[in-house]
Amino acid sequence: MKSIRFAAVAGVLALGLAACSGGGAGSGGSGDGESADPSDQTIGVAMPTETSERWIADGNAVKSQLEEAGYSVDLQYAADDIPTQSQQIDQMITKGVDLLIVASIDGTALANQLQAAADAGIPVIAYDRLINGTENVDFYVTFDNYNVGVQQATSLLVGLGLLNQDGSEGDATGPFNVELFAGSLDDNNAHFFFDGAMDTLKPFIDDGTIVIKSGQTDIEQVATLRWLQETAQKRMEDLLTSTYSDGSKVDGVLSPYDGISRGIITALQNAGYGDSIEAGLPIVTGQDAEIASVKLINDGVQFSTIFKDTRKLAEQAVTSAKAFLEGNEPEANDTETYDNGVKVVPSYLLESDIVYQDNIQSLLIDSGYWTEDQVASGQA
Questions:
Q1: What residues form DSSP beta bridges with 355?
Q2: Which Pfam families does UniProt cross-reference here (predicted)?
């Protein structure tokens, strides 16, 4: 159903912003286009975890760009612990921040905190993860998450030889044994990724070119709580034991995130699939262009990842925050897709790119996201 909503807005590039629930800027904004000096304003930034280099990069990018614009920043990481994040946001509100930017751990767990923010006149921007079940989220900045799923599935099809990188039909015929992984069910994005991927794979599954040998095709069956690498590794090990003990082989794995991908690859290597794609490893996708996985792609181990430039996402979050604090409404390019169960949250969507071995240089190194030395070492 998310894909249907996406289709309705796929061509929409500039839409008017729906009314925001927060009713204008926080204590620093006048609501009439005037604003306090940025040096007198503090923005609370709540990030989910420091265990993923992606979220470290996001936090640093948001903080540095806000500080460059003159704002004070209270950046907190919650170690993937919901009560910790709730407490951190409570403290930010108590301290009187002028605006909140929140990348939630559980998109349904912050209703009380966001009500307190609304009561205090503090606008809330959801950052890359939609906050659900509340009217008190004013704006959403993210990537085109359905299309990320499309790109993940497309890269899997390219790796299997069913498609070429230019989208034309490949030479391979199949059938191919594929297993599916999804993200954490409490993260709204996981559903968009999975929908986009499954809509893309469905024709190939329907005609038998792709076979999901385990029969596990529902997101509830293939989800990975908290996106944890070790959880994914254990599930892949279980799949190999339960489904492939008859001598059959896995040809490809749809993975929604690089950490999950590395867990999957470890399980496959331990099971004797070889150390590289050339040596027999299945095609494994990913997301976030984490440096450890970029090295694996460069070395021919992981096949692909999705590059979501966190610098651009941070820039959009800062642009939206400045609009609120100046008493204005941020620009949205999507006002239909992201329904949080209470309201459709006005959103700004950014585009992403598929990273293969042959475009690491152009996408990641030439853009300054990673250096050649970092790609070679796998360390930031």
A1: 305
A2: Peripla_BP_4
